[in-house]
């Protein structure tokens, strides 16, 4: 039976935290021996969710973004919590945004990479989470 693993990391709510969170996700993937395909997806999911929390979250000065990782059996759940109000959605960019728009696609990326995702309102703020299916390294499903 697979071991359950957990980790929570807190970041300052400012732009330089995004590459740090991305690197932490990659390092955790190696430490937990996740298949490369899961590690790649996790890295992008964390990047998009932390970017959204940092850039779009309207929270008080000095607030933090908490990233929680939970691996249980064949599921990896990543939860990004911030103190900002407002519920994000993975709506399509508007025609005014154009094809060259740099923003507005983060949750679409998450939806495409994750097996499931959602938003959970909290007393203060919200959590945006994503789940990825994990198959053991070397198994047929884990090889690309």
Automatic annotation (TrEMBL):
One of its GO terms (molecular function) is protein serine/threonine kinase activity. The keyword Nucleotide-binding applies. InterPro entries: Anti-sigma-factor_SerPK, HATPase_C_sf, HATPase_dom. It comes from the Bacteria. Residues 17-120 form the Histidine kinase/HSP90-like ATPase domain. The keyword Transferase applies. It holds the Pfam family HATPase_c_2. Residues 80-107 are annotated as: Disordered. Keywords: ATP-binding, Kinase, Nucleotide-binding, Serine/threonine-protein kinase, Transferase. This is ATP-binding protein. It comes from Streptomyces sp. SID12501. The lineage of its organism: Bacteria, Bacillati, Actinomycetota, Actinomycetes, Kitasatosporales.
């Amino acid at each position: 039976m697979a071991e359950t693993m957990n980790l929570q990391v807190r970041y300052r709510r400012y732009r330089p935290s995004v590459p740090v969170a991305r690197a932490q996700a990659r390092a955790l993937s190696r430490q937990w021996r996740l298949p490369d395909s899961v590690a790649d997806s996790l890295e992008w999911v964390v990047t998009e969710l932390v970017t959204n929390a940092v850039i779009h979250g309207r929270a008080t000065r000095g607030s933090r973004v908490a990233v929680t990782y939970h691996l249980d059996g064949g599921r990896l759940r990543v939860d990004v919590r911030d103190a900002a109000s407002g519920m994000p959605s993975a709506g399509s960019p508007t025609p005014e945004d154009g094809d060259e728009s740099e923003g507005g696609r983060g949750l679409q990326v998450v939806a495409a990479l994750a097996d499931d995702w959602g938003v959970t309102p909290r007393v203060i703020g919200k959590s945006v989470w994503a789940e990825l299916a994990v198959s053991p390294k070397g198994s047929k499903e884990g090889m690309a």
